[in-house]
Each structure stands twice: as structure tokens, then as C-alpha cells.
């Protein structure tokens, strides 16, 4: 019987495809890949815990991977590739008892459609607080933090930037200007690229991708500073194809696999020190990054509490 692997992927669709096909080409192992956002994949892994269907979960923000590790939904693995990785990728692993690992990093920010901004005679936003201005009403889009890792990172970032009360005050003010909460984290900037939305709160690399594709999208690193993600990878506890999952894990940490990102204009910063980073990728050294507390905000208790508070105090407000 041919070796096989069930891959749950939470990165962008074209990157998920190129990773699945690349691994098949490298190993001859058949890959069955499903693409869902980080929050949705976490919910699926949790729902399937008594009878796991997936073998490995690749991509998506680190917070749900950390929560999955804490809840025993994923299993520890020490890859021989670890010595090739940046310290931040190893730190992600160590904070989860080696049940996950960092595969890429990306800063949170927003992007705007410069043509729509001009057509609506709107000021150019440079800061998070700018997005609360009344003139942006109906012009801002972000994902729902219950389904999207990007949006949960946004919520956790505001609480760390402005304090819990200030962070939720920000989310309430922002809510008044939101035209739609999407399911997927990158959807708001894709809509901006198509001219269906003016400003999208996303990871900056997703905004860069739209600009590189020829859309009039400008990427902004907010003036107050911002949070960031460590995109992660985890082997699912009870994986049916454990050997193949470990093979994928090792391969996905190689320069060969990480350089595939360049083929699909994925502008994250890869975790292997030898991998290539596009010159168009946001330079994290030039962005004011907060000291994002992955351990706290990736924990089950904090995550549940923040999402519940958002559901009860923000999402129900009139717009």
C-alpha cells in the first residue's frame, strides 16, 4: 500500500498546494491536504481528538497551535533540523514542550486600497488609532477572531498594546467602522485588492502580496507598534501516519521546502536560517514590534476569556 499523509494546512491556499505537491515529489508519499483557517483547524483537531483523522497541521498563527499543545491534541517531536532554525522558532517549540515549532514569522498591520481612499477623500491611515476615526465608517474589514488566527492576534495585540480595558475600548471603536467580519484572516485585504473594501487588518505580508500582484494596495506598519505571529507546525496526537508526519515535519523545516514560499509570493520570514527571504517581505527589524507574550495569549484560559469578552462586549454592538 502506498504511504500517505493527511495534512491540515492553515496558510494561504496556493502555498498549501505547493507544499503538498512538493512533499509528494520529494518523497513519493500521497498527500491529502485540507485548507482551513487556524481557528477552524484547531476546532477540527479538537472535535476529532477521540478519533484523529489528520496527521500533521502546518501553518497558521502560533496561538492555536500552542493551545492545541496545552490541551494534549498534538505530540512532541524533536526534529534533527532544529539546529538550522532561528532562535524564535525554537522558543516557540520550547514554550509548548516541543509539541509545535515555528516555521515562519510575520508582523500584523493593515493595508489600504489607495484608489478607494482617494476616491472617498479619506485621510491616509498610519496608526491603529487612526482606524477609529468616524470618516472610516464602513471602510474597514477584519476577520472574526473566533475563526481566524490573524484576528485573534489582532485582539491579543490590542490588549497588550493598550491594556485590557483600553484594548477592548479600541475593539469597540473599531467595530463601529467595520463593514464585515470575514472567516479567513487574509480575506479583508483580498477584498481591498478587488476594490470591494478600503482598509483590511491583516498580517503585513498578505498586504504586500496584493501589491506585488498589481493591485493598488499600500502596506502599513502601525505607528504605535504591533504584534506578530510565529506561524507553526504540529504533529497531531494519535496520527495514523506518524512516520510520514515526521518526514513531512523534517522536510518542511528544510531550505528546499521553505524556499517554495517564493514561488507563490508568500512574504513571511522563514524559520530556517539558510532559507531565502524575498526582498519585498516586510523587514521585521524596521517594524516596532511589541514583546508579544505567546505563552499567555496562546493559553486556553486566556484565549477563551478574550474571545468570550469579544463575543459579549464587542460583536453584539450596533454598527
What does this structure look like?
The protein has 319 residues and is an alpha/beta fold. It is 39% helix and 18% strand. It has twelve helices and eleven strands. Strands 1, 2, 3, 4, 5, 6, 7, 8, 9, 10 and 11 form an eleven-stranded mixed β-sheet that branches. Helix 6 (149-175) packs parallel to helix 12. The longest helix has 27 residues, at 149-175.
Order of H and E elements: EHEHEHEHEHEHEHEHEEHHEHH
Number of strands: 11
How far apart the termini lie comes to 56 Å
| Protein structure class | alpha/beta
Coarse morphology: globular
Uncertain segments of ≥5 residues (pLDDT<50)?
Answer: none
Arithmetic mean of pLDDT: 97
| Number of distinct helices | 12
Main sheet properties: 11 strands, mixed
State Rg: 19 Å
Approximately how much helix is present in the residues? 25-40%
Fraction of residues in β-strands: 15-25%
Task: From the structure above, extract its key features.
319 residues; 12 helices; eleven-stranded mixed sheet; alpha/beta
Amino acid at each position: 500500500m502506498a504511504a500517505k499523509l493527511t495534512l491540515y494546512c492553515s496558510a494561504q491556499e496556493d502555498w498549501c498546494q505547493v507544499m503538498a505537491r512538493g512533499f509528494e515529489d520529494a518523497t513519493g508519499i500521497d498527500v491529502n491536504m485540507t485548507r482551513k483557517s487556524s481557528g477552524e483547524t484547531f476546532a477540527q483537531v479538537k472535535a476529532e481528538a477521540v478519533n484523529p483523522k489528520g496527521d500533521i497541521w502546518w501553518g497558521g498563527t502560533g496561538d492555536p497551535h500552542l493551545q492545541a499543545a496545552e490541551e494534549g491534541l498534538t505530540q512532541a517531536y524533536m526534529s534533527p533540523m532544529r539546529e538550522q532554525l532561528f532562535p524564535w522558532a525554537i522558543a516557540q517549540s520550547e514554550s509548548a514542550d516541543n509539541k509545535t515549532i515555528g516555521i515562519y514569522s510575520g508582523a500584523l498591520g493593515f493595508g489600504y486600497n489607495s484608489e478607494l481612499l482617494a476616491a472617498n477623500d479619506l485621510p491616509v491611515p498610519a496608526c491603529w488609532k487612526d482606524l477609529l476615526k468616524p470618516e472610516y465608517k464602513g471602510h474597514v474589514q477584519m476577520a472574526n477572531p473566533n475563526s481566524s488566527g490573524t484576528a485573534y492576534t489582532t485582539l491579543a495585540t490590542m490588549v497588550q498594546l493598550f491594556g485590557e480595558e483600553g484594548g477592548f475600548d479600541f475593539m469597540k471603536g473599531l467595530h463601529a467602522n467595520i463593514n464585515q467580519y470575514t472567516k479567513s484572516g487574509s480575506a479583508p485585504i483580498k477584498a481591498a485588492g478587488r476594490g470591494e473594501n478600503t482598509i483590511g487588518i491583516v498580517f503585513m505580508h498578505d498586504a504586500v502580496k496584493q501589491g506585488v500582484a498589481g493591485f493598488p494596495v499600500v502596506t502599513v506598519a502601525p505607528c504605535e507598534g504591533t504584534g506578530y505571529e510565529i506561524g507553526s507546525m504540529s504533529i497531531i496526537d494519535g496520527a495514523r501516519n506518524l512516520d510520514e508526519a515526521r518526514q513531512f515535519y523534517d522536510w518542511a523545516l528544510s531550505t528546499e521546502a521553505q524556499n517554495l514560499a517564493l514561488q507563490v509570493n508568500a512574504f513571511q520570514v522563514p524559520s530556517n536560517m539558510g532559507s531565502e527571504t524575498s526582498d519585498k517581505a516586510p523587514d521585521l527589524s524596521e517594524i516596532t514590534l511589541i514583546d508579544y507574550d505567546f505563552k499567555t495569549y496562546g493559553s486556553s484560559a486566556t484565549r477563551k476569556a478574550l474571545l468570550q469578552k469579544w463575543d459579549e462586549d464587542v460583536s453584539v454592538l450596533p454598527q
